[in-house]
Automatic annotation (TrEMBL):
Start and end residues of each PAS domain: 29-92, 141-211
A Pfam family matched in the record: PAS
One example of a Gene Ontology biological process annotation: regulation of DNA-templated transcription
Gene3D superfamilies, sorted: PAS domain
Protein name: PAS domain-containing protein
SUPFAM superfamilies given in the database record: PYP-like sensor domain (PAS domain)
Amino acid sequence: MVEKIVSQSSVSQREQTSKSHGSLDADIIIKNAPDPVFVSDLEGKILSANDAVYELLGFRTDEVLEQSLSRFVSPEETREFTAALREVIERGVIRNTRLNPRSASNEVIPTTLNASALRDPDGKVIGAIGILRDMRELDKARAYSDSLIKNAPDPVFVSDLEGKILQANDAVYELLGFRPDEVLEQSLSRFISPEETREFLAALREVIERGVTRNARLNPRTASNEVIPTTLNASALRDTDGKVIGAIGILRDMRAYEKVVSDLQESKIELQEKILDLEKFEEVVVGRELKMIALEKEIENLKRELEKLSRGQTKWS
């Protein structure tokens, strides 16, 4: 009986030691993580945070720990975070939830939250480990990118890897004659033939493999049912981890170019016809000249014959 109690006591001590080491390891990982990391319970109360959290928000430790996340985000985002916690309980993880905490200097900081479940020794979810990513620089880059797309002189659009149009500039709407709500969230297959849809998806595969595709031919149909010849140059759209998630496409209206090519072809045909006419004219003129030369020779021959006859008659006289 004593041995059993000692054995149970040893097991209990080992479990406590294991829990202590596990907690210590977790604390070390959280403390030294480069991104802001915090631990919350299922009500959103912050139980632990690393230095990067205090640096991001500008608060002291006592102003963060044991505080509800609702102190730092809006009521709407608090509801979204609570919903995210429910998702953590159900799925064990959430990714790329947007949070905009307010710092000690009252600056609103755009971030994304990835969170995984915090479990007790029995595997029950008791909270969440959240990792924040400061999105200020990325949002600036995206805003700059959006500005470039919006103000580009050529039609520019962004699509996902299935060909759904996520973004387009005014030049696209001007080219096709559709309203934004008739273009955005629509598949490109709405505007091009089934064959060209297959070619576009093949171009997307090339974008995934090579990062770019050039001079793919597309002939979208406009709101007025006009078919417009265009060429497509596309480059890869990547997420923050460098994974290709879509394509940025630039269309070039080829109507003016094809009109020039068509006019040149017509001019070439006209020139060829004129050359044929000149050759025929030359053939006629040369033929006439040759006939004149031959006729002159015959006249000369006749003159010589007449002179001979004339001398012969004089001699006989």
